[in-house]
């Protein structure tokens, strides 16, 4: 298992597994850079100026900030993971009132270089999603509740069928506690550079980050304080081999 260390809005660590176990240096969220950016992982995690409890609102869905969070800057290095293996993402904390889905995407990097890729050109395909788990009692049990119960950890499997190469992983929680009104949902995207080895031949089509969601998607504009018969997880369809 490969493990990545997160503040409230950030991934705090990652643990990846494959034929060989590799443990990566934990994310560092308390180091101040000279330009004012706080480093959440100076190696493989993209930096962001969202050092508070900041989120991206639906009015920002057409803005580059929705891609890898506020003013996201490329990480210099990549974590090597094996296709078909699991990655465990560790958040530092998550408030239990912020119910919602957890979604994860990958995007192949242009020229196979994630350290310099223009984030607005990345085309993301969804590799994992989980939303409403149990609707028996309002506001329901959500993926975020499972994340909290697991010690603020979330496990994602890298598809075994995708081509080897360098990818940006976009891991995101969408909080719905205020989503009953327009512009009320809260997106917390995080990006990590991965080098996938031992892959297959699939090169999935993707969606630009600024086209993943709209403000009125049924899974974005929704009140969770009612009995829901179903919940439509936002974003493009889940990738399948």
Automatic annotation (TrEMBL):
Keywords: Disulfide bond, Secreted
Entry cofactors: Cu(2+)
Nucleotide-binding among keywords: no
Domain Auxiliary Activity family 9 catalytic residues, every copy: 32-228
Keyword hit for Cell division: no
GO CC aspect terms: extracellular region
Superkingdom of origin: Eukaryota
Cellular localization per UniProt: Secreted
Coarse class of the protein's main subcellular location: secreted
Annotated protein name in UniProt: Auxiliary Activity family 9 catalytic domain-containing protein
Provenance organism: Penicillium arizonense
């Amino acid at each position: 298992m490969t493990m990545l260390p997160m503040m409230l809005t950030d991934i705090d660590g990652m643990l990846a597994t494959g034929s060989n176990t590799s443990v990566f240096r934990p994310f560092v969220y308390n180091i101040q850079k000279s330009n004012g950016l706080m480093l959440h992982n100076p190696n493989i995690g993209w930096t962001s100026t969202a050092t508070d409890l900041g989120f991206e609102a639906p009015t920002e869905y057409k803005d580059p900030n929705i891609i890898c969070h506020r003013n996201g800057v490329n990480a210099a290095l990549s974590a090597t993971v094996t296709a078909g293996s699991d990655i465990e993402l560790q958040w530092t904390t998550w408030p239990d009132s912020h119910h919602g889905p957890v979604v994860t995407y990958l995007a192949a990097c242009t020229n196979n270089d994630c350290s310099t890729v223009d984030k607005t050109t990345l085309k993301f395909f969804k590799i994992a999603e989980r939303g409403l788990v149990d609707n028996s009692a309002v506001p329901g049990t959500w993926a975020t509740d499972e994340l909290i119960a697991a010690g603020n950890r979330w496990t994602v499997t890298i598809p075994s069928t995708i081509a080897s190469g360098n990818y940006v992983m976009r891991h995101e929680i969408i909080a719905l506690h205020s989503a009953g009104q327009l512009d009320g949902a809260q997106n917390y995207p995080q990006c990590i550079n991965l080098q996938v080895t031992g892959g297959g031949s699939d090169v999935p089509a993707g969606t630009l980050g600024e086209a993943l969601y709209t403000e009125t998607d049924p899974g974005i504009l929704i009140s969770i304080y009612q009995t829901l018969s179903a919940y439509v997880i936002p974003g493009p369809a889940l990738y399948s081999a």
